[in-house]
């Protein structure tokens, strides 16, 4: 299994950042994400525990189920199904108030389940695409939510 983590500061209040990043339809602002939709509402909130999201990326299709929903501090999910197949332990976003906005840490743990070369494919192919996509989505959140003049100039912040 490979752990992939991307962090950014989104220059907006924690409640706004949590709401934006847990609304899966916003992910299409990344050029690598084609379509996202909520296929089943969660308990107590559309993207709450039990919600099912469907994502079509340029690299494949993923059906995710929300397993934790703790606004505005954390959300977690698992990929129940994907094409091409992948093993997935957990995805997690945490949100922390910082000076000037909200620090978001997005972590996932997954691998391509191919005998012998799976770890290599995960490290060389999946990892760069997943981390780039997570970064693009976090940058889009900053662009959508940050007041003019407070947006991050560096995507690696």
Layout of secondary structure:
Blueprint: E1 2-10, H1 14-21, E2 33-40, E3 52-57, E4 60-70, E5 74-83, E6 87-98, E7 101-111, H2 118-145
Antiparallel strand pairs: 1-7, 2-3, 3-4, 4-5, 5-6, 6-7
Descriptive terms for the model:
single chain, 157 residues, alpha+beta, 7-stranded antiparallel sheet, 2 helices, 43% strand, disordered C terminus
Condensed summary:
The protein is built from 2 helices and 7 strands. It is α+β, with helices and mostly antiparallel strands and 157 residues long.
Structure description:
The chain is an alpha+beta fold and 157 residues long. 23% of the residues lie in helices and 43% in strands. A seven-stranded antiparallel β-sheet has the order 1-7-6-5-4-3-2. Strand 6 and strand 7 form a beta hairpin.
Mean pLDDT: 90
User: Which consecutive residue ranges, at least 5 long each, have pLDDT under 50?
Assistant: 153-157
| Tally of individual helices | 2
Q: What class, by secondary structure content?
A: alpha+beta
- Molecular shape: globular
Order of helices and strands: EHEEEEEEH
- Nearest-angstrom radius of gyration? 15 Å
Percentage of residues assigned to helices: 10-25%
Residues in β-strands, percent: 35-45%
Question: For this entry, what is the oligomeric state of its chains?
Answer: single chain
**DSSP strand count:** 7
N- and C-termini, Cα separation? 26 Å
Largest sheet: 7 strands, antiparallel
């Amino acid at each position: 299994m490979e752990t992939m983590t991307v962090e950014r500061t989104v220059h907006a209040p924690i409640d706004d950042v949590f709401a934006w990043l847990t609304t899966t339809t916003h992910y299409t602002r990344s050029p690598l994400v084609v379509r996202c939709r909520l296929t089943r509402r969660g308990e107590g909130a559309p993207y709450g525990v039990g919600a099912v999201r469907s994502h079509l990326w340029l690299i494949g299709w993923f059906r995710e189920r929300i397993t934790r929903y703790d606004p505005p501090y954390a959300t977690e999910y698992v990929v129940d199904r994907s094409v091409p197949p992948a093993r997935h332990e957990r995805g997690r976003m945490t949100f922390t108030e910082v000076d000037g906005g909200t620090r978001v840490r997005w972590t996932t743990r997954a691998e391509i389940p191919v005998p012998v070369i799976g770890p290599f494919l995960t490290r060389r192919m999946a990892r760069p695409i997943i981390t780039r996509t997570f970064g693009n989505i976090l940058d889009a959140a900053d662009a959508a939510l940050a007041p003019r003049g407070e947006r991050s100039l560096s995507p690696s912040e």
